[in-house]
Amino acid sequence: MHNFKELTVWKKAIDLSELVYRNTRQFPTDERFGLTSQIRRAVVSVSANIAEGAGRKSDKEFLNFLSIANGSCFELQSHIIISIRLEYIEKDIANEVLSLIIEIQKMIHALSQKLKRELV
Question: For 15-26, how does the pLDDT look when each residue is reduced to its tens digit (9 = 90+)?
């Protein structure tokens, strides 16, 4: 079992959630139950799956949850790209979000590789 609050990747995912929530406030009201909801659900899923996986009994289970968190990162990237094309989000903010997603994905990959090595 790992303490998720000490994981830098979890902290970055929380930062990402805050950034996304603050910048989806200005999305059109008619998107509240559409794209805004999907974006927020995906971003929260990243940190939640890291935390849930860290709390599992085995590293094998943790790896599975890291994979789910990574999938949520890809989903979020897609939503942000759509938001850019619809001009719901400023490009500089979107680029900041996308850069942070990529950084988190690299950290997830590195942590996953470390856990896989420890399983052998």
Answer: 999 999 999 999
